[in-house]
Amino acid sequence: MKRFIALTLLPVLGLLSAAPAMAQNQAKQTYTVSVTQIVEHPSLDAVRQGFMDEFKALGLDAKYNVHSAQGNIATANQIASQMLGEEPDVVLAIATPTAQAAAQKIKNIPILITAVTDPVGAGLVKSLQAPGANITGMTDRSPVDRQLALIKEFVPGAKRLGIIYNAGEANSVTTFGQVKAEAAKLGWTVMPATVANSAGVTQAAKSLVGKADAIYVGTDNTVITALEAIIKVCQQNKLPLFSADNDSVKRGAVAALAVDYYRMGKQTAHMAKRILVDGATPATMPVEDLQELELYVNKGAAKAMGVNVPQAVLSRADKIIE
């Protein structure tokens, strides 16, 4: 019982210590926002740009310190330490690895995580409804059940689904578990191909040739940076590739049913306003997600990978790439 009481007092003490800082922030004309991003690729860049655009649209000025870890975890940890010295009003941590690095180093500055698949599983928050510390933000958890149903429309005879992911990324491990569970409901076998870095992506894709009827790529930061390598293998072997983000469809995947990362960045900016201007505290702000999904289809990619686009899919697509 004593242990329970001590734990429940911690968020309260955190709120009291943060109150003076919040009051000071309300009078600021220009806020300092330190941004940490695991790697540069279209989806994560869109989150950052959406945040910046919406922050400005809300009538707020900001000085941005933008950092990219270039896919390196050690660099992400160094960036987290550097951001402490920048004394930002809020930290924007884009993607799971950089969010984890920031969480380990920064305890007394609000951290907004975004494009994080499983904030609880990654150890960033206690729960989605009550984060409990200095961290809150947005999850981009993929609707895997609906995504696999989409693949089934394209490849109705599929029995084996390949998935390429980095087992060192907590978000990707979560996604893999979801894929296995949903694939089992469809009677599919999942064929995993794991990588440790982007250099191994080509070989991982080749290892699935002749073993998988289609390949699925989640929002894995390591894999997405080398997506073109997978696309090349899939085109050469008429193996359809499906993704969990729409920017990958623009790059050459067949289709995706996914969140709009630019809109996610805009929604994250509104959370920042509530913290910086309205005096809200991350500990009691539920983690949010985007309910509306968009369907992208790349007809050229489908042809190159030897699969037909069902008319039923075309008729409901939000964007068709020729």
Please give a handful of descriptors for the protein shown:
ABC-type uncharacterized transport system, periplasmic component; Peripla_BP_I; five-stranded parallel β-sheet; ABC_transpt-TYRBP-like; Rossmann fold; alpha/beta; four-stranded parallel β-sheet; signal; 13 helices; 322 residues
SSE blueprint and pairings:
Elements: H1 2-25, E1 30-37, H2 42-57, E2 61-68, H3 73-86, E3 90-94, H4 96-105, E4 111-116, E5 135-139, H5 144-154, E6 160-166, H6 170-185, E7 189-195, H7 201-207, E8 214-217, H8 221-224, H9 227-236, E9 241-243, H10 246-251, E10 255-258, H11 261-276, E11 294-298, H12 299-304, H13 311-316, E12 319-321
Parallel strand pairs: 1-2, 1-3, 3-4, 4-5, 6-7, 6-8, 8-9, 11-12
Antiparallel strand pairs: 10-11
Helix pairs in contact: 2-11, 3-4, 7-9
Question: What features would you describe in this structure?
Answer:
With 322 residues, the protein is an alpha/beta fold. 45% of the residues lie in helices and 20% in strands. The strands form three sheets. It has a five-stranded parallel sheet, sandwiched between helices. The protein has a four-stranded parallel sheet with strand order 7-6-8-9, with helices on both faces. Helix 2 crosses helix 11, helix 3 packs across helix 4 and helix 7 runs parallel beside helix 9.
